[in-house]
Amino acid sequence: MPRTLFPEGEFITLFETFGPSETAKRTDSTLRAVLGRRARLEKKLNRSIVSATVSFPGAKGANLRVPSSAVGRIETDVMDGVVLVGSDAHYWPGEPTTAHRAFVKFCKDLQPKIVIKNGDVLDASTISRFPPIGWEKTPSLKDEIEACKDRLGEIVMAAPKAKRYWPLGNHCARFETRLATVAPEYANVHGIHLKDHFPEFEPCWSVWINDDVVVKHRFRGGIHAPHNNTLWSGKTLVTGHLHSQQVKPLSDYNGTRWGVDAGCLAEPYGPQFQYLEDSPRNWRSGFAVLFFDHGLLLQPQLAMVVDEGKIDFCGKIIEV
I want to staple 227 with a disulfide (CB 3.0 to 4.6 A). Which of 10, 46, 248, 317 is the partner? Predict the structure, then answer.
């Protein structure tokens, strides 16, 4: 027996109230069908249709409902295709790292739907919370910004049709925090905000994909952060910040979701991290590759640097 097609008005009300996943359940449909119908209706009505609330599964079947208009949240859909997530580049002047070169290559080869630079693109070493070590020489903030422009420009050229987002990280925040502290009277002057210098990437706090996958710079801390991130968010959560590059599955009555740390595009023993006093660090250089099929996120894959100019991806060595 064919499914009953919900009237347009009822469908829109469901979508705007509960979001795509719950709408699919309530209409006995698939997520792909719901997102496809939403896109057709948006084109027909010439307006956006977005969920007014987002539900997180909570204890004892309760739902925590959060306004989708939350500051800094970007909502988007990917039915079929690739999303590349590169975190913690900490770009400095000089030659790009193996991980960055690989990220650019993957942009060219995979032509992703979305490219996400997931925080700490800028290191901002001269306004660091760490004191200088001796008389070490660090690049000026201007030189760092120019290096970031060069590296981001390479990504834009490699994947010109991709949507590009930048969830801000704690190092990125140093730029505006310093200015807001010492020169608050410049608040509305162009250039005072970090986004003014990188117009090709849309800044935000988080990117929500298909209402199921959330990409943001950081959430929980500690060695079990990827597990705790997906446990406490109720979503597949992709972060950076800890540079640990790992994937942790979590399965319950709602199915399987993933806690992902995308690692760092920086070199773990690079000059940006001298404050660690040459201590060993459980970091891995690389990035995350998200494949979507009919709106479903497949198992997240990691591209990991194994040597200078060499990346391990899906059991193969890729030279860059």
Answer: 248
